[in-house]
Amino acid sequence: MHSPIVVLKFGSSVLENHEAIPAAVLEIYREIRRGRRVVAVVSAFGNRTDELLASARQLFDEPDPASLARLLETGEAESAATLGMALDQAGVPARILDAGQIGLKTSEEILDAEPHEFDVVRVRQELLAVPVIVVPGFSGKLKSGAPALLGRGGSDLTALFLAHGLRATECRLLKDVDGLLQVRKDGSLDYGTRYATASYDECLRVGGPLIQPKAVEFAARHGLSFRIARCGSGGGTFAGPVESSFESIDPAPAPTTVVLGGLGTVGLGVFRWLQSLKSDFRVAGILVRDLTQPRPDDVPSHLLTDSVETLLEAHPELVIEVIGGTGKAADLVHQARAAGCRVVSANKQLLAIEPELLIETSFGHDRLLASASVGGSVPALELVGTLTQREEVVSVQGILNGTCNYILDRVNSGVEFPDALARAQDLGLAEADPHLDVSGLDCVYKLSLLATRAFKEEVTVDRIDCEGLDGITAERLQKASESDGELKLVATARRTSAGIVARVGLEILLPHHPLFGCEKEANRLVVETEGHRQVVIDGKGAGRWPTTVAVVGDVLQCRQAELKLGKILDSRRAKAS
Ligand code: NAP
Ligand code: HSE
Questions:
Q1: 377-541 domain in CATH 1.20.1250.20?
Q2: Per-residue pLDDT tens digits for 144-168
Q3: Whose Cα sits closest to atom 23 in ligand 1?
Q4: 42: burial class by Cβ within 10 Å (0-12, 13-18, 19+)?
Q5: Any residues with Cβ below 6 Å from ligand 1, and which?
């Protein structure tokens, strides 16, 4: 069974500048968490196309179209490359494929061409290898292989054209407004009312600069539906072969008040991402251990406290715990829950050893979210949760500790163990107490969380056998190399006739093994369900940004749940009055 494909198109109004990149990464990551594969079509940043056009016209009275097409397509190439680098940093496996690589052929009108075909098989194959491909929109190739452009706003057409060919589950055109707004009689926009649904005709009539008319006409010819929304939205406008309808919206919902426990490797990443999403989140306090420690200039000192009680006086709706351990972190999580706050935590140790938290994490609902606690950017808990809704899970097996995997990778290449560990610490991969990593315990906590969710039965840490990296011997390394295999720390939990059997330990993996070839700090998970179906996901499992993307993914999910709840309560109040 193939994963559903979603085509996301990031327009220039969304990619206003480089600061908008985290929001785009999050939008893509949100879909991967839902088990979808993503084709991300990008426009040029902000006014880039206009700037390039103006510079050409300043130099030449009538710029040659073939050269102009080459110049203008560099705008989309720049934003695709930037998004590709950002996805890599966040640990999300992605490839950039340009129009030539996906065989996107067009008609011969160089500056206003029609797309004719693309290599559907190639794109589908790429999406089996990685969950995301990034495609620079707006351009295709003439018969000669030279570039052609699809007209102004042509990235919309690229997105719809690819969605149509791939039979995508959804095509979402991301804009700076959350849908198509109603136009008043005087021609002004009503920011409080949007089209819940919009017919093609209505899109053409009022879509104006928001959607390319040529793209709407393409959709109409093929009966394609699509969504117009802003990043992080739970709705927007559904456009297609439908009657138009309206709904009222809160034009600017208040930002969610968030407090942060911890400002270390992960905490600082989370703080910075939340700062780039200021219209959605307000950070009202940060808990640290040492108030005298110097902090980066972008962290306002008035936000810092070393007291849980003071932190919670900000009346947050959401508390993020990225402290680690079972002391202050536990105080914060328990007090936050007692105060009715939603909690996001990356602390596998705490969640695995406290039975109440273990059970609640395994439910995976929006009051306690912990995506980052297992797999970093790899949505491991989400995948297992989704699979268990459909079928029985037979086993989960994975490389779940980035530090150990990094160390083994280096040791296999001849680096001394202490040097490899020191480097993993420098890279921000290791726990504050690295013994938790190298002893295998960190993996045990993660396996406990995963297996409890997979088997709907408490798989507590005391039920998991554990061997750590102290089991590395020269003989085992030699045996691995003689068999063309590799020595890895593998976590496995399997349902057997005698119950759940769970173990963390060193194993020699041979090249045909689905966990073979997992490098550096990467994590990989293989879930086997009844009928011997195997689902494999991977990505970076540790480090600031791969963990940040998972934490902020949870934070966004909480905000959406909160907004949805607010909407339900509002409509109940309206009915009651
Ligand atoms: P870290 O760099 O050691 O940062 C810990 C932060 O918590 C620091 O800001 C520290 O304050 C604060 N803190 C520690 N003890 C405290 C106390 N008693 N009271 C108040 N604040 C305290 O740790 P990290 O790597 O960011 O990891 C944080 C959590 O995320 C852990 O649960 C870890 O397992 C989890 N995680 C980490 C990664 C990763 O790749 N690093 C990946 C997934 C999950 P000071 O700044 O004052 O020292
Ligand atoms: N120390 C952990 C690791 C962090 O290396 O995997 C991610 O959970």
A1: no
A2: 999 999 999 999 999 999 999 999 9
A3: 264
A4: buried
A5: 262-267, 287-290, 293, 306, 322-324, 327-328, 346-347, 372, 376, 428-429, 431-432, 542-543, 547
Q: Which of 105, 175, 446, 488 is catalytic?
A: 446
Whether 123 contacts 102, CB under 8 Å = yes
Radius of gyration of the chain (CA): 25
Q: For ligand 2, atom 4, name the residue with the nearest CA.
A: 542
| Residue 311 predicted with pLDDT over 70 | yes
Of the ligands numbered here, which is closest to the C-alpha atom of 491?
2
446 noted as active-site residue: yes
Residues 368-393 pLDDT 10s: 999 999 999 999 999 999 999 989 99
Q: In whole numbers, what is the pLDDT of the chain averaged over residues?
A: 95
Residue 211 confidence (pLDDT): 94
428 Cα nearest atom in ligand 1: 41
Ligand 2 contacts CB of residue 437 (under 6 A): yes
Taking residues 524-534, what's their average pLDDT?
92
Q: Does residue 298 sit in helix, strand or coil?
A: coil
Residues 499, 539 contacting (CB under 8 angstroms): no
Question: 569 pLDDT band (50/70/90 cuts)?
Answer: low
Q: How far is the CA of 521 from the centre of ligand 2 (A)?
A: 8
Per-residue pLDDT at 567? 67
Where are the domains positioned within the chain? 1-176, 177-249, 263-365+556-571, 377-541
Span 91-142, pLDDT tens digits: 999 999 999 999 999 999 999 999 999 999 999 999 999 999 999 999 999 9
List the helix and strand counts (H, then E) for the chain.
19, 26
| 438 pLDDT above the threshold of 90 | yes
Specify the CATH number for 263-365+556-571; select among 3.40.50.620, 3.40.50.720, 3.30.1330.40, 3.40.50.300: 3.40.50.720
Tokens of 274: 């939340």
CA of 295 to the centre of ligand 1 (A): 14
Q: Is 351 in the pocket of ligand 2 (CB under 6 A)?
A: no
- Distance in Å, CA 448 to ligand 1 centroid: 21
Q: Is 313 in a helix, a strand, or coil?
A: coil
Distance in Å, CA 329 to ligand 1 centroid? 9
| Ligand 2 centroid distance, CA of 86 (Å) | 20
* pLDDT for residue 3: 87
Pocket of ligand 2 contains residue 468 by CB under 6 Å = no
Atom of ligand 2 nearest to the CA of 430: 1
What percent of the chain lies above the pLDDT cut of 90? 91
CA distance 73 to 135: 12
| Mean pLDDT value across residues 289-302 | 98
Contact 286, 269 (CB under 8 A): no
What is 1-176's CATH topology?
Carbamate kinase (3.40.1160)
CA 413, 414, 417, 422 torsion: positive or negative? negative
Residue 205, H or E segment: helix 200-206
**Per-residue pLDDT at 234:** 80
Determine the atom of ligand 1 nearest the C-alpha atom of 293. 47
